[in-house]
Amino acid sequence: MGAQAQRTEEWADVTPDAARRLLTAAVEAFAERGYHATTTRDIAGRAGMSPAALYIHYRTKEELLYRISGVGHRLALGILRQARDGAGTPAERLADAVRRFVRWHAEHHTTARVVQYELGALGEEHYAEIVALRRDTDGAVRDIIEDGVAAGDFDVPDVRGTTLAVLSLCIDVARWFNADGKRSPGEVGELYASLVLRMVGCAQER
Amino acid sequence: MGAQAQRTEEWADVTPDAARRLLTAAVEAFAERGYHATTTRDIAGRAGMSPAALYIHYRTKEELLYRISGVGHRLALGILRQARDGAGTPAERLADAVRRFVRWHAEHHTTARVVQYELGALGEEHYAEIVALRRDTDGAVRDIIEDGVAAGDFDVPDVRGTTLAVLSLCIDVARWFNADGKRSPGEVGELYASLVLRMVGCAQER
User: Fold this and answer.
1) What 3-state class would DSSP assign to A183?
2) Residue ranges of the DNA-binding region (chains A, B) (predicted)?
């Protein structure tokens, strides 16, 4: 799947088309120059629109960031919940969660970077809403690890800390992943799934 | 050690005092607003100096970023090389490397974020120089892992990929670490050392 197809899929729920074009333009501008160095005029220009046309869809630059952050966090949470609620042993579900979460961060690394690095620019209410989504994301992974511990399949002395580390490892793929590099998103996902099973002391990996 | 003492230690080699003050002001400004949204006037103002006084020490804003990046990368490399060249088994040296590298990223998270997230703003020559330092950093960790594999202490099917994952896990501490949070830099370092020994399939951890 090409970069264009991924972008389309990522923002598929955003309508109308003009609103979606503005969001993808904002992601690119924020990623290149940072949130604070980007103006709504820059974003409108990238989308081939006038600043006035932008304001029909988004009242402020912060609202664009909030929408981007919401889409990114909801997709990530959806991926992890689907893995958590899937069939299979805790080890299979954890490996599935990591594979898919890593792939998402590799394929959508530009969006993921904006989402992760510009959190501080969100307004207070929006920030609180995003933090709640992050807590749920954390909870989905913690649930799988706790299932594995309860089943006697995992050996995890510090469940909260290990959950944090697993998520951190996967999220940081967005920082270093290079689409022209040697490893495909799927290959990184496969490697990381095996490393994470080791981190949780999975019996099959011992 | 307080934040002020850490900052002093971090930039201790930068002289004269005015040059050091400008660097720490630049780190704070870049971290808050991003490189592209920061002007040399902002940086001089934060340091209590005039823009003209800034230019005595740094010709451009990029030169400030380059100096910050150089100091950060050289400190990180020094930490890992010291651990690599220390006494002890590969497991002890790897645990030592992770503990110290994590502590550095937790204690100096503001500098580390600027160093990691603004790489793309470096000029071509400066970027090449920093990439070489990053390759050496990677090499120091890979050396320890290879020692462990050669000694039969570690079981690592993919040494390059695992090295990348170990470094990534430690570096991302700078993103999420909160000085007011529940875990101290030392506690995160300790947890991560044990997780990394599991990632390399260390015999004692199996």
Assistant:
1) coil
2) 39-58
What whole-number distance in Å separates Cα of residue B167 and Cα of residue A110? 21
Alpha carbon of A38 to those of A44, A123, B33, B34, B201: distances in Å?
11, 17, 11, 11, 46
Residue B31 contacts by C-beta under 8 Å, 6 or more apart in sequence?
B110, B113, B114
DSSP per-residue codes, B108-175: THHHHHHHHHSGGGS-HHHHHHHHHHHHHHHHHHHHHHHHHHHTTS---S-HHHHHHHHHHHHHTHHH
Closest CA to A156 of A86, A122, A205: A205
A59: buried, middle or exposed (CB in 10 Å: 19+, 13-18, 0-12)? exposed
Contacts of B114 (CB under 8 A, 6+ apart): B27, B30, B31, B35, B65, B68, B69, B72
pLDDT of B8 reads: 56
In whole angstroms, what separates CA B123 from the centre of its chain? 20
Of A34, A165, A172, the CB nearest to B195: A165
Do A181 and A106 form a contact (C-beta atoms < 8 A)? no
Q: Which domains does chain B have, with CATH numbers?
A: 62-205 (1.10.357.10)
**What chain A residue is nearest to B175 in terms of C-alpha separation?**
A117
To probe the interface with A, which of B168, B171, B197, B205 has the most A CB atoms within 10 Å? B168
Q: Rounded to the nearest 5 degrees, what angle is found at the Cα of A54, between the Cα atoms of A53 and A56? A: 70
Q: Please write the tens of the pLDDT for every residue from A5-48.
A: 455 577 888 888 999 999 999 999 999 999 999 999 999 999 99
Nearest one of A12, A48, A46, A5 to A29, comparing CA atoms? A46
User: Longest Cα pair distance anywhere in chain A, in angstroms?
Assistant: 61
Query: What are the angstrom distances between the C-alpha of B129 and each of B11, B66, B126, B159, B187?
Result: 20, 10, 5, 25, 33
Residue entry with tokens 């004692």: B204
Q: Which two tokens stand for residue A111?
A: 């969006």
Residue pointed to by tokens 């594979």: A99
Backbone angles phi, psi at B177, to 5 degrees: -65, 135
Q: Are B179 and B108 in contact (CB under 8 A)?
A: no
pLDDT of residue B15: 84
CB-CB under 8 Å, B117 with A117: yes
Position A111 scores a pLDDT of 96
Report residue B166 as tokens: 């170990």
Is A198's Cβ below 8 Å from some Cβ in B? yes
